[in-house]
Amino acid sequence: MANQITDTSLRCDIRGILARHRIDMQHAQFRVTRGIVRWSGDVYYTGGLRQSVDPGVVEAFERDLVTMRGIKSLFFDFMNWRKLSTGEWLPIAPKHLKPYAPGPIVIGSAGDAS
Questions:
Q1: What span, in angstroms and rounded, lies between the C-alpha atoms of 20 and 94?
Q2: Whole-prediction pTM value?
Q3: What does 55-86 look like in DSSP terms, one character per residue?
Q4: Which architecture, in CATH terms, is 7-82?
Q5: What is the CA radius of gyration of the chain?
Q6: Which of 3, 23, 34, 61 has the most neighbouring CB atoms within 10 Å?
């Protein structure tokens, strides 16, 4: 029992991995239950700019998690990334964000008589 890794220590180690890869915890959530880790949300860099991470970062992040002692299973349900059957990570546009479309530029107001 002394060598058993607790869910609390796994959470702490996972937070360290998030910090090392500069992944924002405000958008990506995880839950640990008896060594089973479930991820959801979006994966962005820290800094509040909602800048999506590079595929290499997602792959390195996953690799770090897979090699952690104490994790029995790992599930990902990210909104802005999908893992292909080939093992590659593919960025996808989140459904809750609309693509930016610039509108017309308006100078002055309709009531100006200049």
A1: 24
A2: 0.73
A3: HHHHHHHHHHHHTSTT--EEEEEESSEEE-TT
A4: 2-Layer Sandwich (3.30)
A5: 20
A6: 61
